Amino acid sequence: MIDQIFPEALKILSNLVKFQTVSGASNLELIKYCEKKLDESGAKSFKTFNESGSQANLFSTINGKDNSNNKGIILSGHTDVVPAVPDEWTSDPYIAREEDNKIYGRGTCDMKGFIACTLAVAPLFASTKLKAPIHFSYTFDEETGCLGAPLVLADLKKRNINFSACIIGEPTSMKAITAHKGYNEYITHFTGLSGHASNPESGVNAIEYAIQYSNKLMELRDELKKRNSTKTSFSPSYSTLQIGKISGGIGANVIADQCSLEWEVRPINKDDGDFISKNIDDFAKNILLPEMKKNNPKGNINKEIIGEVVGFNKEETSEAVNLVCNLTGDNSKDTMSFGTEAGLFQNSGISTVICGPGSIEQAHTVDEYITYDQIKKCLKMLISLQEKMVN
Ligand SMILES: [Zn+2]
């Protein structure tokens, strides 16, 4: 079986790589391609779109026996990829290249490889009577804050469809991942008033306010460590906060009127994320801002939310985790530190697990690749799923 499906999966993956679906760009051509493939297997599809209509999520279903209402299984992947600088790559990032039992190209690992596997196995699902439906969910803009998935989930809720499990095929080297931290990213912009440095009080120094804000963030970061003394399976076991970039000012003798801070929080639970937001917002509004406005009514602090990805929490007994371990024959379970759509599916009441082909070490890298071995392992899991779903 796998000998027939494997070459098909490689061919599909090559086709998917050609669509330059960098986050924010249109993915409509790719969605059309996937929809056509699934249509050929008799799937029923519906789409949800972003506001401008330039991006779509595809949700397709291969129905079980008698169109039964049995709770089905979702195979989920995101269609967007991170940008690639072609000059840095050995070959064109958007033309798949096969070498040494690997396939290179942007998105091969994260995560068009998984999507290709699901499309390659779709005809097999369609060829038999299934006990319950198999659903395919392909979303847009996961990499920039999971913008697409909430639209699909809201739509599913309206349609009143029930599910037994969701497998998110992010690159985990085919290991079951049972939890990950949330991921909140912010840029805080400070607007002051420029002036000659010889009279600092004639202006409002945006950098100095940004430093006070940073100090408060670091104070809150220390609080985070104390908040969760019970041990978690994460590494590190507590919620973290980090300031990654600071920019502003033009020189030592000019009062800086602009400064911005880029920072992130990786909360182990929603409370920790809320704790940071509430405290830093209160500090900015009640302490810093009144002080800034004394010398300049236009002085301002604006916290821009780049993305807030909810965490994925370990379930006591998880139908999805049990299913995947059963299919792969690998009972090892792990947690990880990067964000996915898993928490969103979980919060919609769907038992969820992350398990997909490729190593996270190759995701987002120059010369990204996936090995043949990983693609075969994923196909084996999906073929086992089909066997399990047949009466
Ligand atoms: Zn991904």
Layout of helices and strands:
Elements: H1 2-18, H2 28-40, E1 44-49, E2 56-62, E3 72-78, E4 97-99, E5 102-104, H3 108-126, E6 134-139, H4 149-159, E7 163-168, E8 176-180, E9 183-191, H5 206-227, E10 240-248, E11 258-266, H6 270-295, E12 300-309, H7 319-328, E13 333-336, H8 342-347, E14 352-354, E15 369-371, H9 372-389
Bound molecules: zinc ion.
Provide the list of bound ligands, each named once.
zinc ion
Helix/strand/pairing class, anyone?
A: alpha/beta
Number of helices: 9
**Beta fraction:** 15-25%
* CA radius of gyration: 24 Å
**Which architecture of the largest domain does the CATH hierarchy give at level 2?**
3-Layer(aba) Sandwich
Order of helices and strands: HHEEEEEHEHEEEHEEHEHEHEEH
Q: What about the largest sheet?
A: 6 strands, mixed
CATH superfamily of the largest domain: Zn peptidases
In brief, what are we looking at here?
By secondary structure, the protein is an alpha/beta fold.
Question: How does this model look, in words?
Answer:
- The protein is 36% helix and 23% strand.
- The protein is α/β, with parallel strands linked by helices.
- The chain has two domains: 258 residues, Zn peptidases (Aminopeptidase), CATH 3.40.630; 127 residues, Alpha-Beta Plaits.
- The strands form four sheets. The chain has a six-stranded mixed beta sheet with strand order 1-2-6-3-7-14, with helices on both faces. It has a four-stranded antiparallel beta sheet with strand order 10-11-9-12, with helices on one face. A three-stranded antiparallel beta sheet has the order 4-5-15.
- The model has no long low-confidence stretch (mean pLDDT 94).
- The structure holds zinc ion (ZN).
- The site of zinc ion (ZN) has 5 residues, from helix 3.
